[in-house]
Design the sequence.
């Protein structure tokens, strides 16, 4: 019983131990550190918005360029194929004296 | 500059106004956080988090409560979040240590380091804070705001968004629980 009373007394003393707690001063560079973190945060926010736009623009330019090159190449191939075909026909018609004959089917 | 003018200026991106806000409230934020964490280094880190949160969310401050009340509320929430995360880390580390063959201690709990406690009270205060850690969050918050920040019951009620009766009840239960826990410790 005496032990319990002693324990209660010590507990009450412990409870009072923070009654006179002092206010503690803050690090004088607190604002500078917060400002640095805000600047870092702003940088991080800008990056994800700007970079995809650049990437998208580059991809569009590449896609359009590929299409233009392909179109020009295919057009060129078709024209040369046509002229080869016409030449072959001319040779054939010359060989068999077919020039000037019109088909009247 | 009034609170509302300060808020408007910060919302408008005025960094000078934000610096003024930090300088006005840094001591109360830091001491509130330190009351929960009792470690200067971690308290500084969480204080920075509090002001970052303020910077990011000040546009949502409607002026329904005082600016100081709103800032206290953010400080309490950030501190409780930090303690919850630390508790989770501790649990995870304990779990890991079960599988660690060398039984190496991975997570070291923070030692008592509150520069505001008088030297002759350090030992008793360390025990008291250990008991405070075991309190439910609401009792812990009400008790610390009263003892560390010397807030009135009305102010605590505004910060915790409860009525004064509820705060009185929380404080009574907190003191009873702490006394019980400390008595048990000293009796053993």
Sequence:
């Amino acid at each position: 019983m005496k032990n319990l009373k002693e324990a209660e007394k010590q507990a009450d003393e412990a409870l009072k131990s923070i009654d006179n707690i002092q206010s503690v001063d803050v690090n004088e560079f607190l604002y500078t550190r917060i400002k640095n973190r805000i600047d870092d945060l702003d940088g991080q926010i800008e990056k994800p918005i700007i970079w995809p736009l650049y990437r998208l623009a580059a991809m569009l330019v590449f896609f359009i360029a590929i299409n233009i090159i392909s179109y020009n190449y295919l057009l060129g191939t078709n024209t040369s194929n046509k002229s080869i075909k016409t030449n072959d026909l001319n040779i054939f018609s010359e060989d068999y004296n077919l020039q000037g004959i019109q088909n009247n089917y | 500059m009034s609170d509302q003018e300060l808020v408007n200026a910060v919302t408008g991106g005025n960094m000078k106004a934000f610096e003024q806000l930090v300088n006005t409230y840094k001591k109360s934020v830091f001491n509130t956080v330190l009351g929960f964490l009792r470690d200067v280094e971690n308290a500084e880190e969480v204080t920075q988090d509090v002001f970052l949160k303020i910077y990011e969310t000040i546009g949502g401050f409607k002026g329904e409560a005082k600016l100081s009340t709103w800032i206290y509320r953010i400080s309490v929430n950030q501190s409780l979040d930090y303690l919850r995360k630390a508790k989770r880390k501790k649990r995870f580390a304990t779990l890991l240590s079960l599988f660690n063959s060398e039984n190496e201690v991975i997570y070291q709990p923070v030692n008592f380091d509150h520069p505001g406690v008088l030297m002759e009270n350090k030992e008793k205060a360390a025990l008291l804070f250990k008991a405070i850690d075991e309190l439910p969050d609401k009792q812990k918050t009400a008790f610390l705001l009263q003892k560390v920040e010397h807030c009135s019951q009305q102010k605590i009620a505004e910060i915790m968004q409860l009525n004064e009766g509820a705060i009185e009840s929380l404080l009574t239960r907190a003191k009873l629980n702490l006394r019980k826990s400390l008595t048990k410790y000293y009796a053993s």
Residues 30-95 of chain A form the longest helix (66 residues).
